[in-house]
Design goal:
It contains four helices and no strands. It is an all-alpha fold and 97 residues long. The radius of gyration is 18 Å and the shape is elongated. The N and C termini lie far apart (67 Å). The mean pLDDT is 91.
C-alpha cells in the first residue's frame, strides 16, 4: 500500500506541477522584460550594450535560436533571444525617438 501511495502521489504531483509551472514561467518572463526596460530607461546606451551581451551569451551557450512557441510557453523562464532583442529595440525606439 505504501508503494502504491507513492506512485499515486508522484502521478498527481506531476500534473499539479505542470499546471502550476505555467503561470510561474509567464510571470518570470514578464519580470525579464521589465528588467530589460529598466536597463533601457537607465541610460540610452544600455540598450545596445544589453543586446550585445545577450548575443554573446547565446553564442557561448549555443542555445536554440528558434524554439517552438508552445515549448517556450510551457518551459522557458526567459524569453527567447530574438523575441527579447526585438522587445528591447522596440522599447528603445519608443522611448528615445
Amino acid at each position: 500500500k505504501v508503494y502504491l501511495g507513492l506512485v499515486f502521489f508522484s502521478v498527481v504531483w506531476s500534473i499539479v506541477d505542470f499546471v502550476v509551472k505555467i503561470p510561474l514561467t509567464v510571470h518570470s518572463r514578464m519580470k525579464e522584460y521589465a528588467a530589460d526596460r529598466y536597463s533601457v530607461d537607465a541610460d540610452r546606451s544600455y540598450g545596445p550594450l544589453l543586446c550585445s551581451g545577450l548575443t554573446k551569451m547565446v553564442k557561448k551557450s549555443k542555445s536554440n535560436l528558434t524554439p517552438h512557441p508552445l515549448y517556450v510557453f510551457l518551459n522557458y523562464s526567459h524569453p527567447p533571444h530574438d523575441v527579447r532583442l526585438q522587445a528591447i529595440r522596440e522599447y528603445q525606439s519608443l522611448k528615445y525617438s
